[in-house]
UniProtKB/TrEMBL annotation:
Record protein name field: acetate--CoA ligase
Transmembrane segments: none
Domain of life where this protein originates: Eukaryota
Signal sequence coordinates: 1-22
Entry-linked SUPFAM superfamilies: Acetyl-CoA synthetase-like (SSF56801)
Amino acid sequence: MPVSPLAVAAMLACARIGAVHTVVFAGFSSEALAGRIQDAQCRAVITCNQGVRGGRFIELKATVDTAVKSCPSVQNVFVSQRTEHPAVMGKLDIPLEEVGHMIDML
């Protein structure tokens, strides 16, 4: 995730529920990300469709999609819409905005 209040909230939420988590710099390659996911046997990844850095768009979701292909432990990818560019959603993907609505209904 890019540096944002949502990234901080995600980290704090993981800490609050006691979930083992790691924060990965948004500039990592898909290979570097996959290695970290595999080492930790992650079951979920939280990302954004894109990040904006120095006026350029970084395709974060595409990087995660490539990484997750070699990570069978991942069951869900939570995706937040940071920019107007829609993310291509796959079978593992859950829009993060929908999760908030589901929690509100509980």
